[in-house]
Write a structure and sequence with these properties.
Blueprint lengths: L1 E9 L3 H19 L2 E6 L4 H7 L5 H9 L2 E6 L15 H10 L4 E7 L12 H6 L2 E7 L9 E6 L2 E6 L5 H16 L4 E6 L5 H13 L7 E6 H10 L6 E4 L1 H14 L7 E5 L5 E5 L16 H14 L3 H16 L16 H12 L1
Parallel strand pairs: 1-2, 1-3, 3-12, 5-10, 8-9, 8-10
Antiparallel strand pairs: 4-5, 4-11, 6-7, 11-12
Helix pairs in contact: 1-10, 1-12, 6-7, 8-9, 10-11, 11-12
Bound molecules: 3-isopropylmalic acid and magnesium ion.
Length: 356
């Protein structure tokens, strides 16, 4: 089979980590007899510099035409002063929205080998955790009406959290089905003690529960969830939550695994195509220094193989290779705890060697 992949390398460490991911796919292709064709697409700060806009029409078109999108990261201090509609992040939000990628899957698990790198207390880390955060990705505060207006107290700015039953139901179904295939526990996270949008969220999720009798559904307020994540992460199996809460909680969960450089993600819509990206950002402070951890992006490739292309064996092979390299003791700087570390390219080579 031939798979066409749009590669949005983006900014900062984006080009380094997407390079690692493409090498991984090429290796998978050689071993298992597939061909991956890459289309390099300009977006984010890179597109702003070249063409004066974060997501040129042609870039969006090529993402839409591809079998899947691989994205590194967008953004950086260079473009921070630009107005909202011209920021590099706008490209990412527009691709998500335009491709209808409403379901963002962010798995976070603690590798026993990385317990020391986790900020969790030893007894909590010993209990381990393995969860998937299902983040709604095309609605909520990120896409509600926003703006500025004058007031007697000076300028006012507003962003609006809006969710419809349809949006909540479709993301909840993704989460229920995922839970069915895992530990059969689903925790819906909201702020229903204050927000009307959260009350509709909660009602709607509960309205579906009878269709998934094998899944144990619970609710948690987001402030408590932030606390429970560090106090007892083992309790979570699948979490479903809004765009904004999912953004925040997934960064928190990633830190518990040892480093934000470890967490992959898949963004999915109604069909099999998706966008795959690490959950971390462009890390401009370490860009070009070979210090980036490629694992989050390599694991995103595994998710692409599994979820978009149905290549289970290949996905298992990539994940197994990462696991064995971590077992062997190789560490990039972010998880080396000040000890000896390997570069982004060296880590990539180690995983490639295991995969071969
Ligand atoms: C993420 C990132 C993005 C988001 C930014 C870069 C717009 O933080 O994917 O978690 O907020 O969704
Ligand atoms: Mg984020």
């Amino acid at each position: 089979m031939t798979y066409h992949i749009a590669v949005v390398a983006g900014d900062g460490i984006g080009p380094e980590i997407t390079q690692s991911a493409q090498q991984m796919l090429e290796q998978v292709g050689r071993t298992y007899g597939h061909s991956f064709v890459f289309d390099q697409v300009l977006a984010g700060g890179a597109a702003l510099d070249a063409l004066g806009m974060p997501l040129p029409e042609d870039s969006l078109k090529r993402c839409k035409q591809a079998d899947s999108v691989l994205l590194g990261a967008v953004g950086g201090p260079k473009w921070d002063a630009l107005p909202g509609h011209l920021r590099p992040e706008r490209a990412l939000l527009a691709i998500r929205k335009e491709l209808g990628l409403f379901a963002n899957l962010r798995p976070a698990k603690l590798y026993p080998e990385l317990k020391e790198a986790s900020p969790l207390r030893a007894d909590i880390a010993d209990a381990g955790f393995d969860m998937v955060i299902v983040r709604e990705l095309t609605g909520g505060m990120y896409f509600g009406p926003s703006g500025r207006k004058d007031s007697p107290d000076g300028q006012q700015a507003y962003d609006t959290e809006i969710y419809s039953v349809k949006e909540i139901e479709r993301i909840a179904r993704v989460a229920f089905e995922l839970a069915q295939g895992r530990g059969k526990r689903l925790c819906s996270i909201d702020k229903a003690n204050v927000l009307e949008s959260s009350r509709l969220w909660r009602e709607t999720v509960h309205g579906l529960a009878s269709e998934y009798p094998d899944v144990m559904l619970s609710d948690m307020l987001v402030d408590n969830a932030a606390m429970q994540l560090v106090g007892n992460p083992a309790q979570f199996d699948v979490i479903v939550t809004s765009n904004l809460f999912g953004d925040i909680l997934s960064d928190e969960a990633s830190k518990l695994t040892g480093s934000i450089g470890l967490l992959p993600s898949a963004s999915l819509g109604e069909d099999k195509r998706g966008m795959y990206e690490p959950i971390h950002g462009s890390a401009p402070d370490i860009a070009g220094k070979g210090l980036a951890n490629p694992i989050a992006t390599i694991l995103s490739v595994a998710m692409m193989l599994r979820l978009s292309f149905g290549l289970k064996q290949e996905a298992d092979a990539v994940e197994g290779a990462v696991q064995r390299v971590l077992e062997s003791g190789a560490r990039t700087a972010d998880i080396a705890l000040g000890g000896p570390s390997v570069s982004c390219a060296q880590m990539t080579d180690l995983v490639l060697a295991e995969l071969g």
